[in-house]
């Protein structure tokens, strides 16, 4: 989901403020200092937006919109890309109509490209609902467009301009992958849905006999107690008359550790079909605040997963959080945590868990661990590892402890433990990378000042194969410092900033700016990112 919003009325500013505060808390928990908090504000890129654009606040008013996209397939035909826009009505300028009512109007341009080649595009005017006066312009409205394009890697360029304003258009570019193999089952995007009704007249919102109004924003406020979702499962191996059965599962899992929440899991047995439609919902009234994945998967008769897809969402639910912070029911008799009798040692152990913790667990680490008594620390530590390994929590901790020691030795600094650095965080959360590109500097023939040192870490497979060929970019912008900063990743839920090559020029002063030199460095860095050795 992409956020292009900048200016809004008090309601939307408050809504965005709540999201930013959520991100700030996460940032403080992870980094423990104000500079790192500012760095981690970029979490909005993936957690709420995947990519963020903002217009200079000195300008009058810019168009605000949320964007998301989904990919679907039509067996025997070409797949299609579906782009959803939610326009924030209070960010538009309104024009009086001959009828006396008011209406906003924007020009939308969408371009689907492969490299420099335009594969498809749409340019159109989108009109807001008519309103009786300018005091009632807070109505949001939704638009949806489809691009019929084959499997492949694309860039989607989106530009939005207010037809009644002189403010320059908001423009973003975002990578899109369409992949529906012809030789094995696959799952479409798991699309979040605001509401749905049976189709009476087929229209752009229609799929599988329903009109689906997309939920473009993936943030669930406390008042929103249901998550509705739609997905399609494709089986190109289907044979006419087959009596084969498949197991379709839907579940919500913790984003950070992929632990399935048993209260939010459902299983159905489905006959073999070219397309299996999944339209369902979960009641999330009791789901605590945090980051989550909604997963749809297909399993064979042996319960082996053969295809799945995931969508990320965030939940704010203070009413359910109190129960989560209660550790009084944890039985410490014969527990491995009860054998740790030093509060200082246990606090250090708990702090090292931050990279693999959930949002609520990080809140405990940040705000309670230093004051909590020994018994509470033991209860917290015991429950943490029982949730990861019910059969042998002590062994799970001992294995993780080995990695913490390794990370502290490799990435620790004079002021930070290794687990508290960005590289240490990634290593502990995702494991050792498959490829590391270490670039001490990047130069061109014209260089007087090289780029800052940076590293690109590549993982061939993450989350049991759900995400493949993923990368993290770390930049060292301070001379002599050992601590590299994470500036970009294409992993769901991490910092996502596709203009990351600009971070390689932080040492350059205004008088040294050389656009040609910058472009050469950026080009080399981008090639390293796209084509690791």
Characterization of this structure:
The protein has 10 helices and 25 strands. The protein is of the alpha+beta class. Strands 11, 12, 13, 14, 16 and 19 form a 6-stranded antiparallel beta sheet that branches. A hairpin with a 5-residue loop joins strand 20 and strand 21. Helix 1 crosses helix 2. It is globular and about 75 Å long. The N terminus is likely disordered.
Would you spell out the secondary-structure blueprint of this structure?
Layout: E1 2-3, H1 10-31, H2 34-40, H3 44-49, E2 51-52, E3 65-72, E4 80-87, E5 94-96, E6 102-114, E7 117-127, E8 141-148, E9 152-162, E10 170-178, E11 186-187, E12 191-198, E13 206-207, E14 210-214, E15 219-220, E16 226-234, E17 245-254, E18 260-271, E19 275-283, E20 290-299, E21 305-315, H4 318-324, H5 343-351, H6 359-367, H7 374-388, H8 393-411, H9 422-430, E22 435-439, E23 454-462, E24 467-475, E25 485-489, H10 515-530
Parallel strand pairs: 1-2, 15-21
Antiparallel strand pairs: 1-3, 3-4, 4-8, 5-6, 6-7, 6-9, 9-10, 11-16, 12-14, 12-16, 13-14, 16-19, 17-18, 17-20, 20-21, 22-23, 23-24, 24-25
Helix pairs in contact: 1-2, 1-6, 5-7, 7-8, 8-9
Rg calc: 25 Å
Give the beta-strand count.
25
* Content of β-strand: 25-35%
Uncertain runs with pLDDT below 50, 5 residues or more? 1-60, 508-519
Q: Which structural class should the secondary elements be placed in?
A: alpha+beta
What is the helical fraction, as a range of percent? Answer: 10-25%
- Using the alpha-carbon principal axes, give the shape: globular
Biggest sheet statistics: 6 strands, antiparallel
Mean pLDDT: 82
Q: Number of helical runs?
A: 10
């Amino acid at each position: 989901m992409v956020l292009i919003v900048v200016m809004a009325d008090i309601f939307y500013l408050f809504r965005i403020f709540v999201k930013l505060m959520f991100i700030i808390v996460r940032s403080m928990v992870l980094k423990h200092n104000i500079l790192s908090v500012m760095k981690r504000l970029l979490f909005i890129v993936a957690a709420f937006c995947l990519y963020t654009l903002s217009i200079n606040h000195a300008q009058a008013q810019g168009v605000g919109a949320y964007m998301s996209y989904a990919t679907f397939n039509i067996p025997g035909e070409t797949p299609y890309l579906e782009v959803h826009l939610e326009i924030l009505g209070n960010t538009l300028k309104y024009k009086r109509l001959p009828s006396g009512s008011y209406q906003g109007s924007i020009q939308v341009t969408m371009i689907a490209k492969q490299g420099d080649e335009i594969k498809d595009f749409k340019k159109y005017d989108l009109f807001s609902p008519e309103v009786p006066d300018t005091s009632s312009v807070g109505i949001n409205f939704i638009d949806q467009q489809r691009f019929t394009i084959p499997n492949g890697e694309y860039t989607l360029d989106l530009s939005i301009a207010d037809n009644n304003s002189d403010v320059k258009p908001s423009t973003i570019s975002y990578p899109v992958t369409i992949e529906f193999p012809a030789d094995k089952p696959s799952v479409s995007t798991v699309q979040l849905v605001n509401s749905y009704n049976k189709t009476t007249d087929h229209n752009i919102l229609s799929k599988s006999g329903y009109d689906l109004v997309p939920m473009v924003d993936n943030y669930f406020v406390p008042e929103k107690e249901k998550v509705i979702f739609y997905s399609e499962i494709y089986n190109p191996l289907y044979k006419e008359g087959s009596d084969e059965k498949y197991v379709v599962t839907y579940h919500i899992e913790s984003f950070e550790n992929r632990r399935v929440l048993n209260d939010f899991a459902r299983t159905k047995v489905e006959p073999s079909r070219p397309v299996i439609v999944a339209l369902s919902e979960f009641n999330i009234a009791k789901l605590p605040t945090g980051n989550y994945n909604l997963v749809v998967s297909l399993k064979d008769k042996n319960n082996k997963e053969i295809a799945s897809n995931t969508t990320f969402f965030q939940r704010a639910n203070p009413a359910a959080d109190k129960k989560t912070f209660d550790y009084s029911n944890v039985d410490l008799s014969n527990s491995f945590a009860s054998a740790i009798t030093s509060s200082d040692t246990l606090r250090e152990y708990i702090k090292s868990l931050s990279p693999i913790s959930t949002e609520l667990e990080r809140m405990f680490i940040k705000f309670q661990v230093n004051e909590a008594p020994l018994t509470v620390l033991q209860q917290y530590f015991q429950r943490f590892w029982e949730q990861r390994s019910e059969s042998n929590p002590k062994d799970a901790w001992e294995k993780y402890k080995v990695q913490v020691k390794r990370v502290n030795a490799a990435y620790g600094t004079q002021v930070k433990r290794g687990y508290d650095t960005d590289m240490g965080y990634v290593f502990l959360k995702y494991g050792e990378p498959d490829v590391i590109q270490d670039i001490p500097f990047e130069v061109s023939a014209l260089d007087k000042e090289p780029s800052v040192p940076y590293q690109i870490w590549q993982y061939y497979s993450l989350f049991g194969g759900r995400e493949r060929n993923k990368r993290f970019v770390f930049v060292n912008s301070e001379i002599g410092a050992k601590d590299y900063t994470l500036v970009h990743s294409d992993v769901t839920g991490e910092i996502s900033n596709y203009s990351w090559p600009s971070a390689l020029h932080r040492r350059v002063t205004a008088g040294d700016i050389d656009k040609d030199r910058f472009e050469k460095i950026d080009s080399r860095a981008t090639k390293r990112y796209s084509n690791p050795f």
